[in-house]
Design brief:
Blueprint (H helix, E strand, L loop, with lengths): L11 H14 L13 E5 L11 H19 L3 E5 L1 E2 L3 H14 L4 H4 L1 H15 L2 H8 L10 E2 L3 H16 L3 E11 L4 E3 L4 E16 L6 E6 L10 E4 L13 E4 L4 E7 L11 E4 L5 H10 L25 H14 L3 E14 L7 E10 L2 H12 L4 E3 L2 H11 L4 E2 L1 E2 L9 E4 L5 E3 L15 E3 L3 E2 L1 H5 L2 H4 L8 H6 L2 E7 L3 H16 L4 E7 L2 E3 L15 H8 L1 H10 L7 E3 L1 H25 L15 H22 L3 H23 L1 H5 L3 H22 L4 H8 L24 H23 L8 E7 L2 H9 L1 H7 L2 E8 L9 E6 L2 E6 L6 H26 L2 H6 L2 H39 L1
Parallel strand pairs: 1-2, 3-4, 9-11, 15-23, 22-23, 24-25, 26-27
Antiparallel strand pairs: 5-6, 5-14, 7-8, 7-13, 9-12, 10-11, 14-16, 17-21, 18-19, 18-20, 26-29, 28-29
The chain binds zinc ion (2 copies).
Catalytic activity: tRNA(Val) + L-valine + ATP = L-valyl-tRNA(Val) + AMP + diphosphate
Keywords: Aminoacyl-tRNA synthetase, ATP-binding, Coiled coil, Cytoplasm, Ligase, Nucleotide-binding, Protein biosynthesis
EC number: 6.1.1.9
């Protein structure tokens, strides 16, 4: 289709795919690492390769896209690096579930075959999320798409691992770790979700071995008693001074275990005697090390009781609990059972209850790395926005523990460590060795474990740019400009990128971290499948178009506050998309064949022109300031307000006489300003509404190529004209007040009325007179007479209002039939009274108030309030009509 021609309606379904293909083909997303322009770069938080686009992604990527598109318009060389994360446990679980449907487990396939299967799965389904991001309009440099397990990134992982090992920052050690018996892997502390759950506290009798009495211990997990190796008491607890150093007999197992004393014991809890199970509790493990206690593992890695559990071996951990309790009771060892709330940890992936377990794992020594990560935020090299997240960041890093990075799964980066069967030494190397590094023996086997997924994503900002090579990308684009992320991965990911970036690149990975909020439903509830309140971005894009979805998310992206989203809101902003389309269509029809000026005249004359240019300049500044400071909602709102309520509602209406008139000079000025403002508004809207703005841009006169290559409108401060803005305020005020009176008095929109303006000053009088034509047209007047106050008299039978110093009167005698208007109002009032009394009856009904859901009651309350206000307004209006009728009767008589 040619320039200047637009179909009646915007068919986003046809436009979006075509436009996106056009961008990709014309290389608009590609970053040039040799460019002389200043650099702006972002790395995408890589979605899981198993991912499906949800509202969180939609918000996160819309905001990133806005920044990238904005910076391109501002003349930056922009690199947005996309990619996906191999998502270790998540992806492995997906493929395991598929196998389970065929009755197979990963062990049936064996490691190699299983990993092959995961790769097959990745090739087939792994691209979904990327397609969905394209659908959303993301302007990533797809030529640089990376995957955390592709060759380059895998090599970076190995190099980092080996370096950290050589520096003593990675070690292998026995530690208590959180273990998921379902996923059969270790979990990092933050991968465990704690939850307060009702449980039981079992009080168990442990007889002293010498028969001199007994100790009673309390536990929430009686099955772990099978692994007890001591009972601990406080050294100053007077109840137990005599028993320290003696032995007790462990019931059911008939094992002698010592009573030890340690100040760690809380005298107030239970009986003050604590059973110690170093194999299955973090604190007990530490006590065990301190007191040199044996460690007995009674629960296996699969959650089944081990041989060490004696008669209970082979039982599931929960089955075992039941049996232990029953046996204790039968043996007379159970004193009592209390109800007890306690914290239970769950696997963040599969929700199984995690098991503290001692195990030989690989750890990153995080403290030295964390110090530097804190310093960089303290000294401002990296800024966290909003600032309140800094506190969380520091708190976490101050209390950081060593990071357990080994995972007992198969999908991921296999740890580059080899064990020697002959000398027992470990060889850690970037290239697969064929001999032991210590003794040269060829009998070496590689570590079975893989690395935590977050290990590779911690390297993302530099590994994606070709590290360890010194690439031109790294020179140009590292540190990246900003990271846009949700707060849920502030520790998992952001803090670790800081640590790794500072250690390996000697510089922070990003200048800013912008932390956005969650997308919730309209009531502020978290979206979840079980609540049925999930809004699917793909369905929303199908129904309302991508631009409407993006604009809605942006308009509600207030810093530090959650985005409350509803389908109605998206539908609402679709009207805005249509408004932009329709307004552009109108402008195009009015400039067809016109010779638009390159420059707007320095003094465009007419108030409307000076006003819109001044307002436009302010909006340019507002938009810049909002985007530079991540106030996304302000960016969206100020353009919405300006375009709809100033440019469309007022400006285009006001210049109609010029556009349709015979003065060629006035016409071309109006055409030029209308087009230039529109063109620049489209440019400013482009970052949030990329599709419709591109489509319209290409139809506007005087444009070339893609809107992505346009220039962000420069600030022309001399166009700011506060005099014009104040004058226009007054003119709009006069028109607005006449429109109000027309509405209140129920005057037919078609009827022309007469109005009078009585001005306080000559200046005001001059201003209203100069804009008489505008007021007459926009307020639908028959005639307007303007006079100074005191010189003209207040008209009879008129409804009035005051706008700053101007008294405005609308003459009513010709247009209003007082009798029928009074009757109409009475009818309306009666109807409202009836409705209100029904609602009030409901609200005074106890039954309704107690039984109906709170939301329903609230709705009813709001309704009553609304009706009350409306009724009040109608009554006031009736009174006014009565007074006018009275006046009319008085003057007639
Ligand atoms: Zn799990
Ligand atoms: Zn060896």
């Amino acid at each position: 289709m040619n320039k200047g021609q637009l179909p009646k309606a915007y068919e986003f379904r046809d436009v979006e795919a075509r436009i996106y293909a056009f961008w990709e083909e014309s290389g608009c997303f590609r970053a040039d690492e040799n460019s002389k322009k200043p650099a702006f770069s972002i790395v995408i938080p890589p979605p899981n390769v198993t991912g499906q686009l949800h509202m969180g992604h939609a918000l996160n990527n819309t905001l990133q896209d806005i920044l990238c598109r904005y910076k391109r318009l501002k003349g930056f060389e922009v690199l947005w690096v996309p990619g996906t994360d191999h998502a270790g446990i998540a992806t492995q679980n997906v493929v395991e579930r598929q196998l389970a449907q065929q009755g197979l487990s990963r062990y049936d396939l064996g490691r190699e075959k299983f990993v092959e299967k995961v790769w097959e799965w990745k090739e087939e389904y792994g691209g979904y999320i990327i397609k969905q991001l394209k659908r959303l309009g993301a302007s990533c440099d797809w030529s640089r798409e990376r995957f955390t397990m592709d060759e380059g990134l895998s090599r970076a992982v190995r190099i980092v691992f080996v370096k950290l090992y050589e520096e003593g920052l990675i070690y292998r050690g026995t530690r208590m770790i959180n273990w998921c018996p379902r996923c059969r892997t270790a979990l990092a502390n933050i991968e465990v979700e704690g939850e307060e759950l009702p449980g039981r506290l079992y009080h168990i009798r442990y007889p002293l071995a010498d028969g001199s009495g007994e100790l009673v211990v309390a536990t929430t997990r009686p099955e772990t008693m099978l692994g007890d190796t001591a009972v601990a008491v406080h050294p100053e607890d007077p109840r137990y001074l005599e028993v320290v150093g003696k032995d007790v007999i462990l019931p059911l197992m008939d094992r002698r275990i010592p009573v030890i004393a340690d100040t760690y014991v809380d005298r107030e809890f239970g009986t003050g005697a604590l059973k110690v199970t170093p194999g299955h509790d973090f604190n007990d493990f530490d006590l065990g090390v301190k007191h040199n206690l044996a460690l007995i593992q009674v629960i296996g890695e699969d959650g089944v009781m081990t041989e060490a559990a004696g008669p209970y071996a082979g039982l599931d951990r929960y089955e075992c609990r039941k049996r232990v309790v029953a046996d204790l009771e039968a043996g007379g060892y159970l004193v009592k059972i209390d109800d007890h709330l306690h914290r239970v940890g769950h696997c963040y992936r599969c929700k199984s209850v995690v098991e503290p377990m001692q195990s030989l794992q690989w750890f990153v020594r995080t403290q030295p790395l964390a110090e530097k990560a804190m310093e960089a935020v303290r000294d401002g090299r990296t800024r966290i926005v909003p600032e309140k997240w800094e506190k969380d960041y520091f708190q976490w890093l101050e209390n950081i523990e060593d990071w357990c990075v080994s995972r007992q799964i198969w999908w991921g980066h296999r740890i580059p460590a080899w064990y020697c069967a002959d000398c027992g030494e470990v060889t850690v190397a970037v290239e697969d060795p064929d001999r032991c590094g210590s003794c040269g023996s060829p009998h070496i086997t590689q570590e079975e474990d893989v690395l935590d997924t977050w290990f590779s994503s911690a390297l993302w900002p530099f590994s994606t740019m070709g590290w360890p090579e010194k690439t031109p990308e790294l020179t140009k684009f590292y540190p990246t400009s900003v990271l846009v992320t949700g707060f849920d991965i502030l520790f998992f990911w952001v803090a670790r990128m800081m640590m790794m970036g500072l250690h390996f690149m000697k510089d922070v990975p990003f200048r800013d971290v912008y932390v956005h909020a969650l997308v919730r439903d309209a009531q502020g509830q978290k979206m979840s499948k079980s609540k049925g309140n999930v809004i699917d971005p793909l369905i929303m894009m199908d129904q309302y178009g991508t631009d409407a979805l993006r604009f809605t998310l942006t308009a509600f992206a207030v810093q530090g506050r959650d985005v409350k989203l509803s389908e109605e809101r998206i539908e609402g902003y679709r009207h805005f998309v249509n408004k932009i389309w329709n307004a552009t269509r109108l402008v195009l029809m009015n400039v067809e064949g016109a010779r638009i000026l390159d420059e707007i005249p320095e003094d465009p004359g007419r108030l409307a022109h000076r006003w819109i240019l001044s307002r436009f300049q302010k909006v340019v500044q507002e938009v810049e300031e909002a985007l530079e400071n991540y106030h996304f909602n302000q960016y969206a709102q100020s353009l919405y307000q300006f375009f709809w309520h100033e440019y469309c509602d007022w400006y285009l209406e006001m210049i109609k006489p010029d556009l349709y008139g015979d003065d060629p000079q006035a016409k071309v000025v109006a055409q030029t300003i209308a087009v230039q403002v529109l063109r620049n508004v489209l440019v400013m809207l482009h970052p949030v509404m990329p599709f419709v703005t591109e489509e319209l841009w290409q139809k506007l006169p005087g444009t070339e190529g893609s809107i992505m290559q346009a220039e962000f409108p420069p600030v022309d401060k001399y166009r700011i004209d506060s005099g014009a803005e104040a004058d226009m305020e007054l003119v709009m005020g006069v028109i607005g007040s006449i429109r109000n009176i027309r509405g209140e008095m129920n005057i037919s929109p078609a009827a022309r009325v007469n109005a009078v303006c009585l001005c306080a000053t000559e200046t005001e009088k001059g201003l209203v007179e100069a804009n008489e034509r505008t007021v007459v047209d926009l307020a639908r007047l028959e005639g307007l007479s303007v006079a100074l106050q005191g010189q003209g008299s207040k008209p009879r039978l008129a409804a009035g209002a005051v706008v700053s110093g101007v008294e405005v009167y609308v003459l009513l005698d010709d247009v209003l039939d007082f009798e029928s208007e009074a009757a109409r109002l009475q009818k309306e009032i009666t109807k409202l009274e009836k409705e209100l009394s029904i609602t009030n009856r409901k609200l005074s009904n106890e039954d309704f108030l107690t039984r109906a859901p709170a939301q329903v009651v609230e709705k009813e309350r709001e309704k009553a309030e609304r009706l009350g206000e409306k009724l009040e307004k109608m009554r006031r209006h009736r009174q006014r009509i009565e007074e006018l009728r009275h006046d009319a009767a008085g003057s007639a008589g």
